[in-house]
């Protein structure tokens, strides 16, 4: 086994090459790797879509773009040559696919570790049984276990687990984001700002816009009664602007102070804007997990099927800063209309008036 030192740190390649939320839930594992001694050089293989977030991650030294399953022969050849040239000591695949397993094997990476799932595990020489389909732990905890197993396999002491925020921004940076949102929306900075993201990116069962409107009206009334009249910032992803605009108009017609956050020039800029939120409300989608990495207070709405439970896709912010709601026992797993919106509104209002939330306002 290679002897590592500060002069010869381990070179690691971490793969999470799917959606934004999945990648954000890898940040605790990346933080754990960078906390090791000697401090590894960490590269990530990600699709172009999440590359800007990978560049923003403080736990990443190098970003390699994965051209994906549909890349032509030349693209596959170039990626393989790049991985060979990097001379990685270890490959950590957080979500295993045959193509990536084969790529790591062809690149002659000495240690290749992945979950023991599907036939893709044949390409790995270190496999960890996790049984993720049982959804017994949060996704980020499964990722942490894999990162720790990799360090152990390399003969490196496992450091104490990192704690939120996994995307730490300075107070000055958060204040700049608050100012940018104020300029973009015309909102005053003297009230709680509740960000509401009604879209799902096409990947998650979510509340309807009408349900989000009822929730917002209820939360708003409760906060006004408590003397904290809020403002609502409605956000949207690509292709979601029409629904977001319609929701904003609905809230405005109901007497709420609501503004649309204008489109941002890129994913990273949008992600940083979320640092301005006092609380972020969404389905189990990428922006919810971005807000959690920033350790903003979150309220997530989930289906109750085993593969998508609030536990499995739990946000990685501090425990006292996250709320989760799903259909009750006895309802269909995807029946989001069965969620008790009045109870959710009550919990959100109480969370916004709690010291753990208000004291960390940007």
From TrEMBL:
<keyword id="KW-0808">Transferase</keyword>
<protein>
    <submittedName>
        <fullName>ADP-heptose:LPS heptosyltransferase</fullName>
    </submittedName>
</protein>
<dbReference type="InterPro" id="IPR002201">
    <property type="entry name" value="Glyco_trans_9"/>
</dbReference>
<dbReference type="GO" id="GO:0008713">
    <property type="term" value="F:ADP-heptose-lipopolysaccharide heptosyltransferase activity"/>
</dbReference>
<keyword id="KW-0328">Glycosyltransferase</keyword>
<dbReference type="Pfam" id="PF01075">
    <property type="entry name" value="Glyco_transf_9"/>
</dbReference>
<dbReference type="GO" id="GO:0005829">
    <property type="term" value="C:cytosol"/>
</dbReference>
<dbReference type="GO" id="GO:0009244">
    <property type="term" value="P:lipopolysaccharide core region biosynthetic process"/>
</dbReference>
<dbReference type="InterPro" id="IPR051199">
    <property type="entry name" value="LPS_LOS_Heptosyltrfase"/>
</dbReference>
């Amino acid at each position: 086994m290679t002897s590592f030192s500060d002069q010869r740190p381990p070179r690691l390649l971490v793969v999470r090459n799917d959606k934004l939320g999945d990648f954000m839930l890898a940040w605790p594992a990346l933080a754990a790797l960078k906390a090791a001694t000697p401090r590894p050089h960490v590269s990530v293989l990600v699709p172009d879509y999440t590359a800007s977030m990978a560049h923003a991650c403080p736990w990443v030294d190098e970003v390699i773009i994965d051209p994906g399953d549909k890349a032509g022969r030349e693209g596959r050849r170039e990626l393989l040559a790049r991985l060979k040239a990097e001379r990685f000591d270890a490959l950590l695949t957080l979500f295993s696919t045959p193509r990536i397993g084969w790529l790591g094997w062809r690149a002659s990476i000495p240690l290749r570790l992945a979950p023991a799932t599907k036939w893709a595990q044949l390409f790995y020489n270190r496999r960890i049984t996790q049984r993720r389909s049982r959804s017994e732990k949060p996704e980020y905890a499964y990722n942490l276990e894999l990162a720790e197993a990799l360090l152990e396999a390399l003969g490196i002491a496992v450091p104490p687990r990192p704690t939120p925020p996994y995307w730490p921004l300075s107070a000055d940076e958060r204040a700049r984001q608050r100012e940018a949102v104020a300029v973009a929306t015309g909102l005053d900075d003297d009230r709680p700002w509740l960000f509401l993201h009604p879209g799902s990116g096409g990947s998650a069962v979510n509340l309807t816009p009408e349900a989000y409107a009822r929730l917002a009206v209820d939360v708003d009334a409760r906060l006004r009664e408590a003397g904290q009249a809020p403002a609502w910032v409605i956000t949207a992803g690509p292709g979601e602007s029409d629904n977001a605009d319609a929701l904003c108009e609905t809230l405005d017609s109901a007497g709420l102070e609501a503004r649309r956050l204008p489109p941002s020039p890129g994913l990273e800029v949008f992600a940083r804007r979320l640092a301005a939120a006092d609380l972020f409300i969404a389905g189990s989608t990428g922006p919810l997990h971005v807000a959690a990495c920033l350790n903003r207070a979150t309220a997530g709405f989930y289906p109750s099927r085993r593969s998508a439970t609030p536990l499995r896709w739990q946000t990685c912010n501090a425990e006292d800063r996250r709320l989760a709601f799903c259909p009750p026992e006895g309802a269909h797993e995807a029946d989001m209309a069965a969620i008790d919106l009045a109870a959710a509104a009550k919990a959100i209002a109480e969370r916004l008036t709690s010291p753990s939330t208000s004291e960390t306002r940007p």
